[in-house]
Amino acid sequence: MNALFEDFDEIEELAAALDDPSPGARIMAVIDLADSADPAAIPHLARAIKDEAVGVRKQAAQALTDFDGPDAAAALVSALADSDPAVIEAAAISLTELKDPVSGDAILPHLDTTDTIKLKACLAGIKELRRTEAMGPAIDALQHSDNGVRTEAVGVIGWLQDEGSLPALRDAAKDNDTQVRRTALAALGFSKSEHAEATLIQGLADDEWIVREAAAETLAKTGSANCVPHLRSALGDDFWQVRVKAVRSLGKLHAKEAAIEIAPMMDIPVPNLRKECAAVLGEMAVAETLPYLEKYVDDPDPDVRKNVRWAMGKIAA
User: Fold this and answer.
1) What per-residue confidence (pLDDT) applies to 317?
2) Which residue among 27, 139, 163, 298 has the highest number of C-beta atoms inside a 10 angstrom radius?
3) Is residue 150 assigned to a domain?
4) Per-residue pLDDT tens for 123-133?
């Protein structure tokens, strides 16, 4: 806590300015209370979040991002019912900054709300708190008509990392919304089951490249050699972003047999892809790939040059 505000009386003095007739003065009071970093300021910020002036309410919602605990969470949840979209947005953002699992006590009762905006914000806020009580409401929310709500629900389920949620995540990986599918595939990374692996492999054939990208990246987390042939096929994806993830995953799976397919990708005029290829080729250290690396020892991109020279050293060692 800031030594300037250790005295309770000083917090009360700052809070007194919340009664000033000037909205500008009340905004400054909110800022000063936030700067105090003193939990004693939370009740005053909760009061400011109901101020008659939109600017004060928004500032209070933003200020609460620096605090934690159920009281701060309760104030932010209340702000989700504000009449002004800017206040609601500020409160929703601040909710995602909560880290104390106890903060979830103020959020959990609202996971059955019929208010779409509020439900989306509460799911986003509870996600990283990993409250197991949120699992049921999150699975229920997968049936919601709003794509954003379903995406946040998948995030909650993924953070809880419960094998029992695997059927729900597999269903979400078939959702009609791209972001929901992408989030579901990324969430499957905790599971080592054959069912999760099969769903991720299916994701490599998705119509949207950002979904295929998530599948290619997450497959490495399975640790399964069964994924290697599918990732090798993904090296020919039309989008370099997918190929980058496939290359990286093959490296993490130590699939040296893919080195001779990765090496020619050094000729693709995408620095990020060449950089990743060089790094993985160095990890694999397959001598047959050296001629491809040598061509790029003076690559115009400094990161590519660095990785190429490192990879050549690894192969020569």
Assistant:
1) 84
2) 27
3) no
4) 999 999 999 99
The pLDDT score that the predictor gives to residue 151 is 98
Residues for the chain: how many in total? 317
Give the CATH number for residue 16. Answer: 1.25.10.10
Q: Which residue range(s) make up the domain with 41?
A: 1-106
Q: Determine if the pTM surpasses 0.70.
A: yes
- Domain count for the chain, please give it: 1
